[in-house]
Design a protein that fits this description.
Layout: E1 3-4, E2 40-41, H1 42-60, E3 65-70, E4 75-80, H2 88-102, H3 106-109, E5 136-141, E6 144-152, H4 156-170, H5 173-176
Antiparallel strand pairs: 1-2, 3-4, 3-6, 5-6
Helix pairs in contact: 1-4
């Protein structure tokens, strides 16, 4: 089972801790070492990220789908809010898959996969599962890629803004300055 370290501070969750406290999300910040004295599973980590994405989505009044996929391409969590377009669940999965396997934000991948660029063939691989639309981001722990998260349901700009806000909220202020 994939393990990710965390510091217990949140209080009311099933574990009594905020699984993202102390974790390093490689978006848009550099990875920072985290404590190794406690561990949690990837599903708890994914649920916490999904909750934060849903909260940001509600603030923006843009219902979205969110998906978290591990580095092996396995779905950890997939959720579509009421009112999100039906196709958004598939797009969120593709964005998460791309970020998990390539290790880049999907928005950063876009210019690299255009015709004539070195990564242009990537979009035709894996039966079309890769996606270069903004709204996907890699997730790291101890400088190691552990998963990818994808958000879809609004415009590309809305998806990126919701994801950025959710992941910034997940980063403790001490880590955000790195």
């Amino acid at each position: 089972m994939q393990k990710i370290a965390w510091d217990p501070i949140w209080g009311d969750s099933a574990t009594g801790a905020d699984p993202l406290e102390g974790a390093s999300l490689n978006f848009p910040f550099r990875a920072t070492p985290i404590r190794k004295d406690t561990a949690m599973d990837l599903l708890t980590f994914a649920k916490n990220i999904a909750d934060r994405v849903e909260a940001q989505s509600a603030r923006a009044k843009v219902p979205v789908a969110v998906c978290v996929i591990d580095i092996h391409g396995n779905i950890i969590l997939k959720h579509r809010m009421s009112g999100a377009p039906t196709f958004s669940i598939e797009l969120s999965e593709r964005k998460a898959y791309t970020s998990a396997l390539v290790g880049l934000r999907t928005a950063d991948l876009f210019p690299l996969v255009q015709p004539g660029q070195e990564l242009f063939p990537l979009m035709g691989l894996s039966e079309g599962r890769f996606c270069s639309m903004g709204g996907g981001a890699p997730l790291t722990s101890e400088s190691q890629l552990v998963a990818g998260v994808g958000v879809s349901g609004g415009t590309v700009e809305q998806d990126v803004a919701i994801l950025e806000s959710a992941l910034r909220e997940a980063i403790p202020p001490a880590l955000a300055a790195t």
